[in-house]
Amino acid sequence: MVIYVSIAIRKFEEKDIPYKVNWINDKNNNKYLHYDLPLREDKTLIWYNSIKNRADRADYTITYNGEPAGLIGLINIDQKNKKAEYYICLGEEKYKGKGIAYTATKLLIDIAYYELKLNKIYLYTEIGNRSDQKLFEKVGFEKEGLLKDDLIYNRRKIDRYLYGLNLEKYINKTNVVNSSEIEKFNATPIHKLSEKLKNNNFYIKRDDLFPISFGGNKARKAMLFLEDIILKGCDYVVTYGSSKSNHCRIISNIAASKGIPCSIISPIETSKPNYNSKLIKFFGTEIKYCTISEVEETISKKIKELEYKGYIPYFIQGGGHGNIGTQAYVETYNEIKEYEKNNGLYFDYIFHASGTGTTQSGLICGQLINGDNRKIIGISIARKNPYGRQVVLNSVNDYLVSKGMDYVNFDFINFIDDYVLGGYGIYNYDILQTIKKVLIQDGIPLDTTYTGKAYWGMKEYIKKCQITGKNILFIHTGGTPLFFDDLEELTNE
Ligand SMILES: *Cc1c(COP(=O)(O)O)cnc(C)c1O
């Protein structure tokens, strides 16, 4: 299990009172806070009941992996002048030095700007409180003045600085992209192939022409991830995968296109670079190599390090696995339906290359949502059953549950592992012949790892199962740079 560090803020609630009392009474925290000490739970409850519905303040609890970690909020909210006073107090020592205060402040700023529509937030800080001032300055607060003898606390006269932050300026500086800039593409084309095997009609859906970064299923998934990255206000992308993979090439490309820095955690590779890895370098992505057993640790270390530096990182699983990846192929399924409707056609079978199974689970979910009965057949390019099929099933059910639908069972999944040969990337003479034939007769590039292997597997399966006279759709899941990696081998023999 990868440990994801999550920092969030939520409304301060009654159940947070004991935490607040402990934190404020901790002498490591209250040096600069000016409370009447010790703070008591009963009085704090009275205070809480008196403030919880007030419109001139907004109090939040900071959580770290779900655990209360501190307090943050806005007081003196002044809608006429569109400003409010900001405060923050982290809890125990164990929460300090993790970048929590910084991330929580950025989250509060979003609320101040987008929900409360404020223009400015400001704060007062004792002149001796240098460590907090470092945080404020890192966020972007500017020192606006010195207020002499501003408070009297325990008979001590206190000088304070006033710091201010213009929210509009801040938001414009930090938001690299806004979601209205994300392009929605038209459906990819479907057209007929010259293939006539066993009197079937063959069609192909050209997801390799999905119009970004050499297309393919990873590009489709990536566009949905990009939307989510922007929605969540994240400013750093971390993903896992081979530095030779289509997934990492596309994630690097979309991140670079929006000026978002990107890191790839990749298993150590010994074979020579390919076109994907050259492109990834070209996009300026950082690649961190580690052994398979170090992957989880490396990912969580990288994410913590970024949060400490004040980034809001976004993690994408290898291959774009997960409900967002599945969603991409639910949408593809709907494009297929639309094509059928417009052309008076019905595909009895849909074939495609299946790897992590996200593409297949999306198609299956699309089929279930539409109540269709056709066969969706994933030709495994690496995994064997029952594991391969189980992963697809899990993805299908994860997605269905997220949409409030019922589970499906194992028999529903046609994950065919008869054509994986020796495993990932292994191909044979017949696959090379298939790729040559499709390129020559239809002008479409396939590759030995994914689409060529799946296309060959599809034909073998059709022969084996004696499928005749059907309409068959093959989804070209992309990977065009891999075709060029294979070109030498194709022209050699
Ligand atoms: C990743 C990939 C696949 C497999 O897709 P999954 O969703 O992981 O099953 C198929 N074809 C190409 C070209 C790919 O890059």
Q: What's this entry about, in short?
A:
This protein is α/β, with parallel strands linked by helices. It has helices at 17-25, 41-51, 100-115, 130-139, 167-174, 217-231, 246-257, 275-282, 295-308, 323-343, 358-370, 387-402, 429-442, 451-464, 480-492, and strands at 7-11, 58-64, 67-78, 83-90, 120-126, 142-153, 156-166, 190-192, 201-206, 236-240, 262-267, 286-290, 313-316, 349-354, 375-380, 414-416, 471-476. The structure holds pyridoxal-5'-phosphate.
Characterise the protein shown here.
The structure is a single chain. The chain starts with 6 loop residues before the first strand and ends with a helix. The protein folds into 3 domains: 7-174, 3-Layer(aba) Sandwich (Aminopeptidase), CATH 3.40.630; 180-216 and 322-491, Rossmann fold; 217-319, Rossmann fold, CATH 3.40.50.1100. The protein is elongated, with a radius of gyration of 28 Å. Helix 6 packs across helix 10 (323-343) and helix 13 (429-442) crosses helix 14. The protein is of the alpha/beta class. The model has no long low-confidence stretch (mean pLDDT 92). The protein has helices at residues 17-25, 41-51, 100-115, 130-139, 167-174, 217-231, 246-257, 275-282, 295-308, 323-343, 358-370, 387-402, 429-442, 451-464, 480-492, and strands at 7-11, 58-64, 67-78, 83-90, 120-126, 142-153, 156-166, 190-192, 201-206, 236-240, 262-267, 286-290, 313-316, 349-354, 375-380, 414-416, 471-476. It contains 15 helices and 17 strands. Strands 1-2-3-4-5-7-6 form a 7-stranded mixed β-sheet, with helices on both faces. A 6-stranded mixed β-sheet has the order 8-9-17-14-15-16, with helices on both faces. A 4-stranded parallel β-sheet has the order 12-11-10-13, with helices on both faces. Pyridoxal-5'-phosphate (PLP) binds next to helix 6, strand 14 and helix 11. Pyridoxal-5'-phosphate (PLP) is lined by residues 216-218, 246, 319, 353-360, 450-451, 477-479.
